[in-house]
Amino acid sequence: MTRWVPPRDVLLAWNRDHLWNPFTPMKNYLEEDPVIIERGEGVKLFDVDGRAYWDGYSSLWLNVHGHNVPELNAAVTEQLGKIAHATLLGSANVPAILLAKRLADLAPPGLRKVFFSDSGAEAVEIAVKMAFQYWQNIGRPEKRRFITMTGAYHGDTIGAVSVGAIELFHARFGPLLFPTVRIPYPHAYRHPSGDPEAAARDSLAALEAILRDQADEIAALIVEPVMQGAAGMIRMPDGFMAALADRLRAYDVLLIADEVATGLGRTGAMFAVEHDGVVPDFLTLGKGLTGGYLPVAATLTTDRIYEAFWGEEIEGKTFYHGHSYTGNPLGCAVALANLELMEQRKLLEHVRRLSARAEARLSAFRELPYVGDVRQAGLMIGIEIVRDRATKAPFPREVRIGRKIVARARELGLLTRPLGDVIVFMPPLATPEAALEAMMDILYRAIAEVTEKEAGR
Ligand code: PMP
């Protein structure tokens, strides 16, 4: 039976009356004639009026093969015919076991243990709690602090916010958070020297100073490898991850690689840590794990960590964490189908081809008079808009240049979301080449038109 859907004006009224959207200034949103998506097909989204838009942000950085994919639909339906949910607390289910095995086979060597969860934030919380408890379990409870990076975003629950560092989202919750030690994420464009190597050197020097004095108290460092996402698509200098991992290993501090955004092909490698040959102690996944279908996330770790939790109940070594829907069979079944499809369709090769094509197109964006910086890691792209390229000064805040560009792109038929003055471009990994070109045409036009207009005011 198909549910009756009221007309658009009624939906909008109900959105206004009852639906509080996440990360959304509700006043602006409701003034700006919101898009209400009804369905998707391939890399296109259709609103309730039947208008089509390119999905230029992978429906918040997670879509892989496009929307309404027959193979993924079938995986959900097939599992529905068996069971929708069975708990992992004290029992198991078939798709969860198969997915754990598959992830262990795919992951960098040694990451053999998989703990499931429902969101990226939770996958991070699990890594943080495991790292914290690991040192207690092996008799070193004084190692209990975390090193975090400026600009970090690891999710919006209180633990994930504690290890995050985005003023706008996190500052007001300060009194609720546990304190961390922070080092700068190497951000070449905003570093006084503008030089990636100098930015990396400063960051590593800050790390070394902390490790030299305090390593005995530090449990772990958490980092978004290769590309920091929500901070505005900040690309770390090549080799930085390897140097970071090397220093942490020297001081026996654990490494948590948060690959919720970068993992599973997004940067052109299966995992971003592979670019530098790094094997972290924890690797978090979310977003693209189910191809963008259902909320399943995962925290991968090593035997070294797992074995520290191995003990009789009375020894107090158990990891007491889990949610009602942990390891949901529908989600795990579609995640398995997603990973199989990635392999069958040689998606990583496609991503690399598409990234090269995007890179070639981006050189024209760099020439635009109000584009300050273009940052790319595979199909994770950020275009930073500035008022003055020489001084790197932004447009005045009240201009809200990012939002205006995204609004124009929407009029032209492309959906994305800005991160302040950085325009995000993250198409689904399986985007056909012609669709990528069409999306980038719109993006270019929207940036050129809006910046010219606003600068001329
Ligand atoms: N870590 C990173 C690096 C992310 O980019 C995000 C989401 N943008 C998260 C964690 C949180 O994931 P979720 O929104 O699924 O909780």
Automatic annotation (TrEMBL):
Major location category of this protein: cytoplasm
GO molecular function, one term: pyridoxal phosphate binding
UniProt-annotated binding residues for pyridoxal 5'-phosphate: G120, A121, D258, H323, S324
PROSITE patterns for this protein: AA_TRANSFER_CLASS_3
Subunit structure, as described in the record: Homodimer.
Binding site for substrate: Y153, K287, G322, R417
Protein name per UniProt: Adenosylmethionine-8-amino-7-oxononanoate aminotransferase
Organism whose genome encodes this protein: Hydrogenibacillus schlegelii
Family recorded in the similarity comment: Belongs to the class-III pyridoxal-phosphate-dependent aminotransferase family. BioA subfamily.
UniProt catalytic activity: (8S)-8-amino-7-oxononanoate + S-adenosyl-L-methionine = S-adenosyl-4-methylsulfanyl-2-oxobutanoate + (7R,8S)-7,8-diammoniononanoate
